[in-house]
Design a protein that fits this description.
Order of helices and strands: HH
Number of strands: 0
Strand content: under 5%
Distance between the termini: 60 Å
Helix content: over 70%
Largest sheet: none
Length: 60
Amino acid sequence: MVKKIARKLSSQYHKYLRIWRLLKKPSVQEFKLISKVTAFGLLIIGAIGFAISVAIKTVF
């Protein structure tokens, strides 16, 4: 039982370690692009939510 848990923990650790090694800090250009896309997505979702809210308040 203990060996099974230790094996699972070791396996998970190695998976996380492999992913951690693949990570890299984004460049300034990449960061700006990601920020713009995220902001645009938030604006779109907010606009859709606002439109639904106005539509519901108008109907009821």
